[in-house]
Amino acid sequence: MSPTVSPPPALAARSTRRWLALSVLALAQFLVVLDASIVNIALPVLGEQLGMDTVALAWVITAYVLPFGGLLLLGGRLADRYGHRRLFLVGTAGFIAASALAGLSMTSGMLLGARALQGASAALLAPAALALVTQLFPQAKDRTTALGIWGGVAGIGSAAGVLLGGVLTAALGWQAVFFVNVPVGIIVVLAIPRLLTRDPASAPSRLDYPGAATITGALVAVVGALSAVEQVGVVHPLTLGLAAAALVLGVAFVMIERRAAEPLVPLTVFRNRNLSAGNLVMLLVGAAMVALFFALSVYMQSVLGYDALTAGLTQLPLAGALVIAAGIIPGIVGTLGLKRTLVGSLVILAGGLIWLAGSPADAVFAIHILGPSILIGIGLGGAFVTATQLSVDGIDGGEAGLAGGLVNTSQQIGGALGLAILASLATARTGALHSAGISAADALTSGFSWVFLGAAAFALIGAAVACFAHREAMPEGTPEGTPEGTLTAVMPAGATY
């Protein structure tokens, strides 16, 4: 077994006010996650004012998701090379500028360009932020609590998008969903240099440019292909071409990484079974969550007749349950262990989704939706916290950015995958029932039920995957980076204690 090396002391002393620093980092992460969903409610008004049809409006979402998902791994590695604080500040500054540009947009082209810049900036910001969190909290107990807050914020950002999008669009116009990022982002940029020390000096390294180019191209092609499934169908030449490009570039990336002296993504990192399991679980949780929020929002407005603001307000119980779950999960992990808590959270999530799938076309919120929403919030809160923790388990400071890029990439790819698969199933189910003479409301409801059941299936598969994690949790008080904290990172896959 290879010897382990403790991280530099500087990593454990990045801040004397680390909990305040965590809150600022989490605020930036909240904006990144929020921006993937807050725009949805504003799309109809935005399209009317800028003269964008349905296809063009889909690109408002895709223009953000493509560079975000495609550049995350590169962003994580750049942070490891040039400094996590530095790349975090660069990404946040770019995100602020892009948000202001989007709010000022007078044409569709200007808006789409701004959205692409937002996504690219988020790809620098997100992995660097998670890497800084892992450095701020090297002790197992504190890290569990910190990642509980982090995972909760990520889940809340997704749930809050619909609510805030409806409120801001109704009160201030569609521009407000972009402008809201500017003052919050400025607070982050001003606070972080005062809360975190400068990045420690690191040995110069050579960036793996061929690996960076191929993996970025592959991820962009994957996200593009999944987005194309929703817009033009599975067998359309665009979808098939992007899928083929993703496959070719993915194979090329693996071949390059196996031969590179300093690879962008050392393939040996996947020998860490917890990291591999955590990322796969995060992919499945992302798939379930994005499909859930999409279907739930449309179901409430198209079937139940809620307006955008009411649909947003109905997300409050789910968001509240998620916040509470994220707060108590660290204590549960300390009692039950990481793996059992993750599996239990995913089973609760699946149970809530299955319950929600039984909602009728004339559902009453308090009777049919409130209960499932609370269960779903509890399950999502627990799953986000524990899957994130599992994904960074055993990672030292030199690869913290890579780990952050991997887990964020898993969530983004999972979201695109889940929405593409389940939206296609729902459309097919609704179309078949409508052709059979079933009423439009009942046909739509049945289609959305399939989305909820499919999301539950993703959660249950995630629970099965979580069972393959190596261990329950690090011993209380064990610093990450000691031999106990890094054992899984250097043990061959399949090894046992």
UniProtKB/TrEMBL annotation:
PROSITE patterns: MFS
Main location: membrane
Cleaved signal peptide residues: none
Compartments reported by the entry: Cell membrane
Gene3D superfamilies with a match to the protein in the record: MFS general substrate transporter like domains, Multidrug resistance protein D
Pfam annotation, one family: MFS_1
Record carries keyword Transmembrane helix: yes
UniProtKB keywords: Cell membrane, Membrane, Transmembrane, Transmembrane helix, Transport
Annotated transmembrane regions: 20-43, 55-75, 87-104, 116-137, 149-172, 178-197, 209-229, 235-256, 277-300, 312-334, 341-358, 364-385, 406-428, 448-469
Origin superkingdom: Bacteria
Membrane topology, as annotated: Multi-pass membrane protein
Domain Major facilitator superfamily (MFS) profile: 21-474
Protein name (Swiss-Prot/TrEMBL): DHA2 family efflux MFS transporter permease subunit
Organism: Leifsonia kafniensis
